[in-house]
Fold:
Amino acid sequence: MNQDEAAGDIAAPVPALFPEPATRGAADARLARLVDDALARVARGPVAPVLDFETAARDLARFDFAAPVPLDDLVALAIGQLEHGATHMTHRRYFGLYNPAPSHPAECADRIVGAFNPQLATATTSPGPVAMEAHVIRAVATQTGLPVGSTGHFTSGGSEANGTALIAALTRAHPGYAGHGVRAFSGPPVCYVSRESHLAWLKIAHQAGIGRSAMRLVETDGCGRMCLAALEAAIAADAAHGAVPVMIAATAGTTNAGMIDPLREICRLGRERGIWVHVDAAWAGGAIASPRLRPLLAGIEEADSVTIDAHKWLATTMGCGMFLTRHADVLPAAFHVQASYMPSNSPTLDPYVTSALWSRRFLGLRLFLSLGATGWPGYGRHVERATALIARAADGLARRGWRIANEPRLAVLCAVPPQGPSAVAGIVRRVVASGRAWVSAAELERTPVVRACATNGTTTVADVDALVAALQEAAAPGSPARA
Ligand SMILES: *Cc1c(COP(=O)(O)O)cnc(C)c1O
Structure:
């Protein structure tokens, strides 16, 4: 405490919040050790949580926050709740919902960003970080095949990125939308996604004011891809009734099954009809890293905008989405605003003028460090090994009489057990309860399936074989799994 503060009766900084550097350094070192020890136990234990919500909530009742508790105790409690009370993305046998084991460079990024806590609302405030994010976005846009001059930004996740796509499409579709909202249109604006798309689209339509019913759920082709004929028919019917088609959102890598809508054909249709085409590649966008897998995404480079989540297949920490667009002018048109207290107002540089958020965390460092440390070739190997592991699982299950319900060319597998779809729920419950692996139940084309995705970059062949054995045992309780 300095003299002036003491003289003015101003208390010293609150030490529990702002400890001296030496205290802080020692606490950091203890924390790092505790986390490492916990993760080592996690690797040997069950994938699913052993702590239920009621118990977890009861444990917290003693915290009334009236008096301080030593940080070391709180940290130990928090690590315990994560070790015992969460599904483990870091477990090699988590075959889950696109949530990755985090890359180490991304964890480093979180540590650095937490320490400096920069504000990325403007390039004036944080020129270094804003330049780094713009650089990474350009690199990803280029790798996606979007033209020079494409732009975009990091988002909280795929949902925000998809929401940005809808706002961009509406803004582009009518010059009066920014001022008057959907009232500017001659009829109700409508959008098209497939029935197998990510249904956050309904919330997005609700938030944008076009309403949930404006999100047309187009029929699929029997294997989880948008049916082009059904799309054309829906557009024609809407236009005939005075509705205004503003966006087609193709899915590249459905959440259920990793299936890819016919991107080229949808882009062509969008161009012909003057409808914005967005490609939601939240998970499968990771395939841009692999020359072998990239052809599966053919057509994505023709889209007006694209969503890719770095926190899915690119394995950064959550949440780290990206919105990319070839129309650099649409973002400031959609998100422009002025405020006297902001230090600058650049429609090309300042993220608060070109995106939905205002205060902004330095998310892009996670991908900068990860991409920098491994390069596109490293990420290519990462996604290719995931597809190879899932191909092995598909093969193992098929040989045991399971029906593979999707085309598992990416790293997701949907399988129906020999006993039929009605056995799916029980099998998934038994496998998850056993702690041996984590898979989920899903529906593909209205049929229950067991869904497994290789999300952890360290999963091995032995883990996949263990998954197949666990599924087989759960499918035929009592009979020992064949090797
Ligand atoms: C995960 C996912 C989303 C939602 O992204 P979040 O990052 O969870 O907000 C949207 N679309 C697809 C295809 C997804 O897989």
Q: What stands out?
A: Residues 320 and 363 are 6 Å apart (CA to CA). The mean pLDDT is 95. The chain is about 45% helix and 10% strand.
